[in-house]
């Protein structure tokens, strides 16, 4: 839309981009490894219904691509006669968003256990086993990734999807179990589980805590059932495993997605934007670690309104999904490529997020670490969108001071080359603060101008 006396800038809109070439390396490990020879042996009890410790061995029955099946049995483990006898399988799938449970099957639970269905016949629910306690009410997802501070999620489970749960990542802490008597660092997930209408209520409801060790899997499970001080408590601990623990990846969130949170930036350019452009970004929707940011002008020469979408995934990190803006200004910015676009349809930068998104995904890795690098080349999806060859690297942690405060920030530096367009060529440095997101950006353009973005509140 044109207004009298205003030059309308082209907008960066509908940019559905994803890094497909030379993406940043993802962590080599896993919160639940499943090599063909992997094995775990647990001991578990229920303080009311299974007071004699039961040894249970878990192995990998099969795997195909990103799916695998774990099998467990109590046979051949010298369990006492009054221990629980069971065997079963649980089918899992690794996705970019975490770990899902797709199916399960087992022998029937002991008759003394509460019935976890509305009727006793054909009841496919059970809590008589370690993995049944891990996946109860948390089928899809069972564990969300990337596993970062402040993360929480909701899930459902049970044969009829009548079990609901809300899980919260508590943080990393050292835990001691027989398999690791000297202690091992674990990620702790606490889950509130609710079930209503089962014959055995309130046994299906309660608080479950799982300690996950990187490259090992769950090493401890405690399920405190509803019902007061005398309510049952299920406890499982890892006795032995042939899996070696690894240091967990960083759980610092450098690009938080919290609904209703907002960020206000000041943006200047030494040649084209000497009067600061102040814009406010607000997260108005978040679903499955995908967020929509809306943007509006607070002050300055660019009248802008629009939205940006971002996702956070294990393999692709923080990725810009789209940017749709409408803007008008008297300022004249140099056009951007790609050269294949018609001159009347050139893109322009109209917001701090345009500067951050430009040229390459991911913006920052899911589990960033000093020395990581990723790039985009001809033939990639990024190149077809922007016409830019680029390389990003994680420089490390630096102290940075901006109007909004002083932060120990993760520094990501990107070199960009857009042939024929010096404003789209240069070096961009971004500072991402824990729990805050982008706090500063400096883009040294090849036309000798410098764009600076700072978080002001």
Write the layout of secondary structure elements.
Blueprint: E1 39-46, E2 50-64, E3 67-73, E4 87-95, E5 98-106, H1 130-135, E6 143-144, E7 152-157, E8 163-177, E9 180-195, E10 206-213, E11 217-225, E12 233-241, E13 262-269, E14 273-287, E15 290-299, E16 303-313, E17 317-328, H2 352-357, E18 373-376, H3 381-386, E19 389-402, E20 405-417, E21 426-433, E22 437-445, E23 450-455
Antiparallel strand pairs: 1-2, 1-12, 2-3, 3-4, 4-5, 5-6, 7-8, 8-9, 9-10, 10-11, 11-12, 13-14, 13-23, 14-15, 15-16, 16-17, 18-19, 19-20, 20-21, 21-22, 22-23
Radius of gyration, in Å, reads 26 Å
- Characterize the main sheet: 12 strands, antiparallel
How many helix segments? 3
Helical percentage: under 10%
Mean pLDDT: 92
Q: Strand portion, in percent?
A: over 45%
Low-confidence stretches: 1-26
Major sheet: arrangement of strands = 6-5-4-3-2-1-12-11-10-9-8-7
Q: Report how far apart the termini are.
A: 31 Å
Order of helices and strands: EEEEEHEEEEEEEEEEEEHEHEEEEE
Cα shape: elongated
Query: Structural class, please?
Result: mainly beta
Give the beta-strand count: 23
Structure summarized in a few sentences:
With 457 residues, the protein is mostly beta strands.
Description:
It is a single chain. With 457 residues, the chain is mainly beta. 4% of the residues lie in helices and 49% in strands. The chain contains 3 helices and 23 strands. The chain has helices spanning 130-135, 352-357, 381-386, and strands at residues 39-46, 50-64, 67-73, 87-95, 98-106, 143-144, 152-157, 163-177, 180-195, 206-213, 217-225, 233-241, 262-269, 273-287, 290-299, 303-313, 317-328, 373-376, 389-402, 405-417, 426-433, 437-445, 450-455. The protein is elongated, with a radius of gyration of 26 Å.
